[in-house]
Amino acid sequence: MFATNPFANLPAMWSTGAMQTYVVLMVLAVIAGTLIDMVHKGSAKYFFANSRKSRGQGKSVDTASIAVKTVMVDVLASGEFCNPRRRVAHLLTMYGFILYVVTTAILVFVYPTAATPAPALVPLLWWLGGLMVMVGGYWFWFFIRVDVAAEGSSPWRVMRADLFILSLLSSVTLALLWAWLQGIGSGASGLVFALYLLATTVLFGGVYWSKFAHMFFKPAAAFDKRVAEANGTNENLPTLSRDDPAQRERHSMELLRNAPRDMGLGIKREAPRHY
User: Fold this and answer.
1) Does residue 143 contact residue 273 with C-beta atoms inside 8 Å?
2) Do residues 144 and 89 touch, judged by C-beta distance below 8 A?
3) Spatial separation of the C-alpha atoms in residues 234 and 229, rounded to whole Å
């Protein structure tokens, strides 16, 4: 079962061409939703305006090396997360989702029928990607979310901001459940497949209303921030820090001028569970 392409045996009502058309429509939905989101929020306008504003200010920097560092640290390693559990959960979900989407496209377009059997490795990677999404996603949902872990809210409390993670988990969970039911020959696989398509449509068709588009904005924001820090402009924000001797001397309490830099971080020694 784990080495068999589940899309090669689609329900009778779905032809290979219909599934391929559906995948293309979902790709177009993501593009359209992202563009509409950018226009609505003015994200691209902000980044271009900010880039023009900072051009010529501060010292010159090597933008190529900053771009490489942004990709390696902020994109590939999710360096913006200081909480190790949150970072691991995010990386599991991100790389699992990428693996799941890529292998889905391969199985649907390259090996669409039983007459063109897929190499056993591809379905195995599809299952692996889906399981990674489920581990990272459910770990985040039940144990890492701030309103659950720190504020004591119920994990079943749902808000609009949860649309992306919930639709993602629903889509992947139903996909694996459908593949398993199909593998054991269960008659319920057709119903689960319909639910899987519904959840997937919400995931990719709801980009405008969810946080899906953030994955495209965050690398640009991280690069912009690194450039501003490197050229010294820092987007005209204050840079008050005790790391800087000049700033340390400005401290109103002489006792704290030579205090250790990590002084005062005792609150981080325990989980914020004081609700």
Assistant:
1) no
2) yes
3) 5
pTM, 2 dp: 0.80
Residue 49 sits at φ, ψ, to 5 deg, of -65, -40
Q: Where are the domains of the chain?
A: 6-244
For 69, 70, 73, the CA distances from 63, given in Å and listed in that order, are 10, 10, 15
Choose among 2, 25, 9: nearest CA to 201: 25
Q: From CA 75, how far away is CA 257, in angstroms rounded? A: 36
C-alpha triplet 250, 255, 259: angle, nearest 5°: 85
Could you give the 3-state DSSP secondary structure of residue 187?
coil
Sheet strands (E) in 129-224: none
For residue 232, is it left (φ>0), alpha (ψ between -120 and 50) or beta?
left
pLDDT tens, the chain, 275 aa long? 889 999 998 877 788 889 999 999 999 999 999 888 878 777 667 766 766 666 666 677 777 888 898 888 888 888 878 788 889 999 999 999 999 999 999 999 999 888 889 999 999 999 999 999 999 999 999 988 877 766 777 878 888 888 999 999 999 999 999 999 999 988 899 999 999 999 999 999 998 888 777 777 778 778 878 877 777 776 666 655 656 666 666 666 666 666 666 666 565 566 656 55
Structure tokens at 126: 């599809």
Q: How many CA atoms lie within 13 A of 98 on its CB side?
A: 8
